[in-house]
Protein 1
Amino acid sequence: AHHPATTHPLAPKINLERVLSELKTLATHSDLTPPAVQRVVYTSSDLSARTYLQRIISEANLAIHEDVVGNLFAVWRGSSSSQSRAVATGSHIDAIPHSGMYDGVLGVLGGLEAIRSLKEAGFTPSRDVHLIMFTSEEPTRFGIGCLGSRVLSAELPHEYMYKLVDSNGTTLDEARKAAGFTKELSEAILPDDTYSAFVELHIEQADSLERSSTHIGAVTSIAAPAQAAVRFSGSGGHAGALPMAERHDPGLAGAELALEVEKAALDGQSNYSVATTGRFEVFPGAVNSVPRTATLELDVRNVELEERNEMLTRIRDSATKIAERRGVRLEFNVTNADAPADCNKHIVEMVAQAAQESGLSYSRLVSRAYHDSLFMARKFPTGMIFVPCRGGVSHRPDDLERIVIRITFIRSLANFRLPFCHI
Amino acid sequence: AHHPATTHPLAPKINLERVLSELKTLATHSDLTPPAVQRVVYTSSDLSARTYLQRIISEANLAIHEDVVGNLFAVWRGSSSSQSRAVATGSHIDAIPHSGMYDGVLGVLGGLEAIRSLKEAGFTPSRDVHLIMFTSEEPTRFGIGCLGSRVLSAELPHEYMYKLVDSNGTTLDEARKAAGFTKELSEAILPDDTYSAFVELHIEQADSLERSSTHIGAVTSIAAPAQAAVRFSGSGGHAGALPMAERHDPGLAGAELALEVEKAALDGQSNYSVATTGRFEVFPGAVNSVPRTATLELDVRNVELEERNEMLTRIRDSATKIAERRGVRLEFNVTNADAPADCNKHIVEMVAQAAQESGLSYSRLVSRAYHDSLFMARKFPTGMIFVPCRGGVSHRPDDLERIVIRITFIRSLANFRLPFCHI
Ligand SMILES: [Mn+2]
Ligand SMILES: [Mn+2]
Ligand SMILES: [Mn+2]
Ligand SMILES: [Mn+2]
């Protein structure tokens, strides 16, 4: 890695109070009372948060455009942008129910602050620098995560987009148009040569950095989930009247499978194997009824695609055997099986070296959670910078109180002048 | 058992069409479209069903009175009722969601038809004969089964009644008053010498009679449920970010417990041991979240009180161990633990002998489900007559189509002149 000292002629000055105040203001655009945040894509809290974001971006004199699903691009025009591809940073601002104020938002407002501090120090890039706010990284409304980054990286076929529907029966297409994003879906995809690099700043959502008192994580790869919807069905019956020997209880099939899901991860080769049964419901759900159905949703992740797929196969085989043994019917649908991604090695090295030069401790690590970077990495050289969060809390409101932002990252990001390439 | 032939001087003639037509009419007093029935206590469908029932009882020239919770008593006055205690038959008409038309209703309308046919044959009893319709045998609304029979048998303390509340926050006391039952709760309890015998006619809710082509079941004892509400709590987390080794997943604790509940019943000494996890819910129930809580409801039954209690103790011990091993918090509340009941031996013999004399096949059997008879048995000599139902179906709407009523039972009930004693 080469990082000549001459790329630091300026001393950009981060305005910490400004970023913290913006983080807190954005947290008030929420359906819930602080510290709990909920900001679901295209709802009024999402739209008002976007309006606020556009205002502070405009105040920084950046040009704004939006795409067909509401991905927002803030453009800092470079001095010779026609000669080289742009670089970009960014993340998301949508928030699942009862989450906190940093997930995603930090990467958007942190990127903005880095740009602003460079501008205020008098710097002008040669390339264009983009700040991206991706639409609906969270799967809350349409059941699929990273909606915006999937769309612009051509990882979400148009036919599939037209099928997405929320729990009220509103389609994605209706919802995006009602929110004012009315262009043709075919205009969504970014050309392959749009960016020479993309880097996303994000809280770690785990506690390895915090426990080791490390300032910065240089992400080397991003684990990806495979998700499955499983339903076992039996004939039910009266909890008092139906003898044990005559039962075909889908709830117990589900219980067995949940434990097999855990085992598949515990037996995994890599210590990045995780597998979760996040949803488990029985119907009719009455104390005196043997269940008629059990509905489970599974999430299986690994940084190695092959091992991830082996875990999923093993779980599916277990489900089949359990269903046979218990005489219940099985439906097993893989709803999502994205491939993991490697970060660009050059960018990982630049992040590490820049941390070193800035006097920040760092470690190389894997992102267990997935991010818009997973999809950006399909098309563009991509990296991620993690900052610690206390207790590894990410999707919970108490991170407002408990999280520690090592705000140094923002200084780093500016010092690096977006660390991924010479701008 | 003595059953002199001279007690059959009359040949009461059952009007099958009348009973079947009344069963079908009562099934239309429902919140659901036939064949599904739902008739929740004190709702408009329950109240309109009561009005219909009162009309046909009045047409049979029986006097009606109701108690503080709406238990209904239809009285056929005997010729020398002051000299001997009354006898009674009856069951319930409330129905859980998506249930069928026979559960409970058969015992009410069948008892009415037996009385009518005896009256129409010119018979007059010496004792009073009561037909009882018990309020809320099903636990649907207030979470406790056999509400009416518990109240009148003094098995439900008044303090407890005042605490009962439905899922909308309406108390039992408010609901009963709104339904027109406004007397003081203290008037609810029947004097100990009210009945010399009580017998309940009911569908078997299992398929042993049907499979063995037996007309009549003479119930010898009634299993009773113990029910428990269980909650495991952990700290949750992101399904991708939280390593397996750091998890304290209450959903998996619940899965283990559900399997232990099954084992406790399978290992039971008697083949009447049953144990069920009828409710299983995880919160927040999102595919990418490690659950923070798992809520289970358990139902454990046996005809032997001691063995039933041993099962419950074993399950509670398992829950404690699972919670310790997984580092999750446990709340384990026994919400209900009624003792099983034996039927009165004399009544069991009379049912058996009367079946024999009527040319009906019969067998002695245990009631796995519980009934208002469980509580009537605490105060009065009690018996039950089971009739077959196809496939053992009881709490499901398809019994409307699939059940076979061996309508002979009604003839039997009349032939026996209420089989439990000489009236
Ligand atoms: Mn998130
Ligand atoms: Mn995020
Ligand atoms: Mn029932
Ligand atoms: Mn019943």
Protein 2
Amino acid sequence: MTAYGVTPLSGLPARVTICEVGPRDGLQNEARPLPVEVKAEFIERLVDAGHTVVETTSFVHPRWVPQLADAEELLGRLTFADGVRYPVLVPNERGLDRALALGVRDIAVFASATETFARRNLNRTVDESLTMFAPVVERARREDVRVRAYLSMCFGDPWEGEVPAQRVVDVAKRLMAMGCTELSLGDTIGVATPGRVAALLGALTSAGIGIETVAVHFHDTYGQALANTLAALQHGVTIVDASAGGLGGCPYAKSATGNLATEDLLWQLAGLGIETGVDLRKLIDTSVWMAERLGRPSPSRTVTALAKENR
Amino acid sequence: MTAYGVTPLSGLPARVTICEVGPRDGLQNEARPLPVEVKAEFIERLVDAGHTVVETTSFVHPRWVPQLADAEELLGRLTFADGVRYPVLVPNERGLDRALALGVRDIAVFASATETFARRNLNRTVDESLTMFAPVVERARREDVRVRAYLSMCFGDPWEGEVPAQRVVDVAKRLMAMGCTELSLGDTIGVATPGRVAALLGALTSAGIGIETVAVHFHDTYGQALANTLAALQHGVTIVDASAGGLGGCPYAKSATGNLATEDLLWQLAGLGIETGVDLRKLIDTSVWMAERLGRPSPSRTVTALAKENR
């Protein structure tokens, strides 16, 4: 997949870890949930393609996300591969109990930078949600379980408009002080542009948050995800969230469609000579296979181009 | 359209000129040509949105591009606005005569960086095509008509694979030595990544080509167009080609779909505080209107997001 040449760009990292969010973030929004065996095969295909971090599912109450009500059954079917992390979303201590019982070693909690989205997504204020997560994070860390903190609406919020960087920094600092090991900055409605990305990353590092703990989670709602990713890489970020085939979005955010497609990200990283360990061809085959199961084509430009070319 | 904030990124230009290629490059590939009055309205809407460069049509023989066989009638219908340039594609001296007779003051010639594409698109070698264009450019310049030179396949070619930067530099130097006033670097099949862009721009400026004369023309086939644009802006480029609603591609290049959508570009530039003079709302209205006429939705992410939101 490097037939068109590899040319590095100075100042970029040599290696990027992709956090593949397709099975959880990608599928949590489906009108008709997929059978658990399809989800298990999806995850195994993603690992076979070379992914080392695959977010598998969520222990949010099935009333809120019925699509992932099979979390326990799904985890029971997986064979955890060596060197691969399988984070699951955990909203509270009960969720953590269930996850730990199934051998989970990586969890994720999800906070919001804005009050409106915290209320809509978590039915709590930002403060209340942090209070809810604190004992989860503390206990997870005691068990040596890694904790990724998602922070939503880091750039704009459909109800509140522009989100000030300082607001994001404040919540981020509290999450990291709580013991979270990684911070994923979500542009939940896809409105960011590269200057905003650079400014926010600068504010976070100035506030003492290590860039090596920061992931970016861009949505392609306005086509900006890869340009924003480039700006983040230029700022030293080495962890990028993406979703195979561009699956998913957020069910509670207006116009929040379009996770960055892992294939489009891979095309960029491969061309830049940045190592990921992920095989683009295998990933495209997986996304084509998933598109057949969902009954609709992938929105990924790269999947569209290469699926067409080779079939 | 700046509800989500403007944040500049250091090292970028304060102003970018967009070369809107929708009416020519966008429509030359349509299975059913549009009525001439729709094309004229399209161009007038683009100018009303604030565009100062709108590529209108082509004097290529109608046998090759029947979609633009109405070039003379279309130009006759336009009222050329002050301060707006309306370049037309001109392949030879006969085309130049026809264009000059209609008051055209900006033309474009189109060359290829690769032999295979020169043969397929122009039925000539690269040398032969340059020989064909030389007298066109010379006479246009004598008449004080500006000449944009398109250079196709600057990064990859579906038949030849990776295209070396030196090959592009060689052809570019000959075009500029001939008297062309602007050079548009085409990633005709959309395979470039930001390192390639920076390397090619570096090679061109090292060869003495002024960055102020260089435009970039990216295709979004693999989702890379805006990230590549960012890399070009970081290298000093101030002219960017784009197509309203992402119309078009190239009829002769395998998998060459997806001109960069002007709306996606505008979202990025507006967020970066880079002036263009183009009104995003008016442009989206125009692309929605055009999509109705073509009977299919725009592939632009920004058009999709905002057309959905506000209707």
